[in-house]
Design goal:
Chain A: Keywords: DNA-binding, Transcription, Transcription regulation. The complex is a heterodimer. Chain A is of the alpha+beta class. Chain A has five helices and six strands. Helix content of chain A is about 30%, strand content about 20%. Classes of the chains: A alpha+beta, B alpha/beta.
Chain lengths: ~170, ~400
Amino acid sequence: MKLTEKELEIVEILEKNARIPLDTLAKMASLSLEETADILKKLEEMKVIVQYAAIVDWRKVDGHEGVTAMIDVKVTPKRGVGFDEVAERIYRFPEVKSVYLMSGAYDLSVIIEGRSMSEVAQFVSEKLSTLDSVISTTTHFILKKYKHDGTVFDQGEQDRRIVVAP
Amino acid sequence: MHGTKTYLSETATRLKPSGIRRFFDLAASMEGVISLGVGEPDFITSWSVREACILSLEQGYTSYTANAGLLELRQEIAAYLSRKFQVQYAPETEIIVTVGASQALDLALRTIVNQGDEVIVVEPSFVSYGPLVELAGGVPVPLETRGADEFKIQPEQIESVITSRTKALMLCSPNNPTGTVLHKEELEAIARIVKKHDLLVISDEIYAELTYDEPYTSFPAIEDMRERTILVSGFSKGFAMTGWRLGFAAAPSTILQVMLKIHQYTMMCAPTMAQYAAIEALKHGEQDVEEMKKSYRRRRNYFVQSLNELGLRCHLPGGAFYAFPSIQSTGLTSEQFAEQLLLEERVAVVPGNVFGASGEGYIRCSYASSLEQLQEAIKRMRRFLSRL
């Protein structure tokens, strides 16, 4: 689907900050409120904008730190449906946060979040490895998130400019 | 000091202190100030550029460079000027790398001004132009532009201030503080007068990267103007590299070689590590510049429309990152407005009169601040205006 320049502008602004007030968004794109609301509606209906979500640093929330694992999964693709069917079987589990089809040494990259390592391990051994098409899994636990989806988690770079300058 | 003798030079003593200074001291002493008074990008220099500088230091590139700057950098500058603005300069003889565009301006003026020569300065203007002309022994002649004309020079106006001593015209497009960009046709009209009166133009194009509505026209790209122009630019604004102090000038070699002579005696060369960083900026920085431009344009649209809604009339500035709204509707002078706004609502703006008499009745607001800060500044200004 080809977006107009203004539609693209709206998507780009929202991708960085989805909580921007409608009137501010309209001004930034030099559009009226109505035009902006119409574009938003269209983008949402077309699923160009899929979801508005917050990026949360759960490490800061006591009792909710959790663990994240990236799992390399090798599978046997099925005739007719290729990798899609097995991907679907995997992404339907709610603890699975992402599933990507990859080029290279393995086929699917699966990201799982759980409350503890044993919870993730249990998922891998009981749910994932036991799927018919799955040949092997390699689990990598994430130790620390520095940057996620373009956002730096800890304090970013500060404004060090002097207050008034020519 | 003894008796009445002063050791200070008359020229230096006569220079007016910068009006921005007083404001800076006041704003810097306060807490919780939202500053729209900053004349520099809110972006930090791209990591790839910083990384290139670090690498040059690791490899031990810490000695002087050629006086005119690293040849590789001059070649990149020549390629950049040709690619972006369709102007051709020979890297070996027509380009010099300077310590900021400020030094390039200083060199340009000292190269062309004889004692008493007049240099036309289009106002409102960057605060340094007048003093630099005076330091070079010249006489700055202000040419006032008006808000009603969106601060664009009216060509016939130029002729009204030309005398037998007029040597040059200083242009700045996009302009600091008004953000005004001159279109090709407007530059052509100026060029006709420049030619007719045999003038030279110092074209300060430091904000050339930051234009938002149409392609930029560089003054030396106008027919017959290359031989009459000293093009001054640099990395500070477009590439978010203010602290690196790196600029350049391009001019016909007869002029540039004299600039280089002065540069040899006064500066030797621009900082080496900054020059290596600048090579990286020109080679691979275009994508980052585009992203910054987009961000400025969006903030400009938001901020200028919000100012107009507050009743502070403001034209849509085509470039730089300044809005220059009129505050005449408030009945306050620029200084009163800026001072009261700072003291009562802790928003720092720069009073327009520090950029020349024609800036009276206006304030300069930089929109190179985060959107959240701009939103908060608008909120505070609304509160301030409602009390007047």
